[in-house]
Amino acid sequence: MAGVLDPQLKRALAERVRYYNELGIYDFYRREPAIADPSTRRDAELYESPSIQPEQRDLMTPRSKAAIAVPVEENIFEVAIPNAESGVADPVQALRLIREDLGDCTRCRLSKQGRKQIVFGVGNPNADLMFIGEAPGADEDQQGEPFVGRAGQLLNNMIKAMGLRREDVYIANIIKCRPPGNRTPERDECETCSPFLMRQIAAIKPKAIVALGAVAAKTLLAINAPMSEFRGRWFDFRGTELAVTYHPAFLLRDPRQKKETWKDLQMVMKELGLTIPAKGVD
Ligand code: URA
């Protein structure tokens, strides 16, 4: 099959290439074929397929970890546009490039709805621990730094209770602009903005992430679940451990939940190898 293209597909591809060329795009990259994992259902189907040679099938014994390379269906004209910080190992420089790329962002409606400034993120670019909240509030919008208001004071106490300083961790939000009236961010706002957060996470490479509150948890994990299902366990977030705890603003309204929050933070401290003091969150 290799090298033989259906004429109709060939025409469609040629048209697509012309279209991209008109946009000024000339370089196309093909992704490496994915490696099939014999433990997945799709590979189990492949295992049964008559097109698989007996010797390949031997390699695919479902219980074994062995895998064979199979090309997966893909859009071969997908254009890989590298991020500005691609290949930059220094997190300080990578974060600077991400910030530059963000610019004076007008990618979503929040840029026209009264935001004073973009709240990028703050802290140690080499942090082992990252806290991710929902969105800047009025104080953050004013000062250009996440978690500097009352909720921020409580987050500082949480960090201190863990035996850390605010400067040791990195703090960011799902979205970088204040929604009017501190309303919950809309889904499209999260979708537009969160790729920059993903790039910040990739640059910092923390050992653990703590999502503060349900909006952060739901957006990062793409799971619609109540807090009770998020808390008290680890999630794999693109290869990084992610835990969820209550948002400090919620704790200001219901301080009884600080005890529960302390349990979550202790789980995080254990993961990071931090000494657990007896005292909890004030
Ligand atoms: N609440 C958040 O989620 N983030 C902030 O930066 C401040 C308050």
Structure overview:
This protein has 282 residues and is α/β, with parallel strands linked by helices. The protein folds into 2 domains: 7-79, no CATH class; 91-272, Uracil-DNA Glycosylase, subunit E. It has 11 helices and 6 strands. It has helices at 7-22, 41-48, 54-59, 91-102, 138-143, 150-161, 187-204, 214-221, 227-230, 248-253, 258-272; strands at residues 122-123, 129-133, 170-173, 208-212, 235-237, 240-245. Residues 33-49 and 55-73 have low confidence and may be disordered. Bound molecules: uracil. Uracil binds at residues 133-137, 140, 146-147, 151, 173, 249. Uracil (URA) is lined by residues 133-137, 140, 146-147, 151, 173, 249.
Briefly summarize what is shown.
By secondary structure, this protein is an alpha/beta fold. It has helices spanning 7-22, 41-48, 54-59, 91-102, 138-143, 150-161, 187-204, 214-221, 227-230, 248-253, 258-272, and strands at residues 122-123, 129-133, 170-173, 208-212, 235-237, 240-245. The structure holds uracil.
Mean pLDDT: 84
Low-confidence stretches: 33-49, 55-73
Which H/E pattern describes the elements? HHHHEEHHEHEHHEEHH
CATH topological fold name of the largest domain:
Uracil-DNA Glycosylase, subunit E
Provide the structure class: alpha/beta
Bound molecules: uracil
What strand order characterises the main sheet?
A: 1-3-2-4-6-5
The CATH architecture of the largest domain is 3-Layer(aba) Sandwich
Q: Can you identify the CATH superfamily of the largest domain?
A: Uracil-DNA glycosylase-like domain
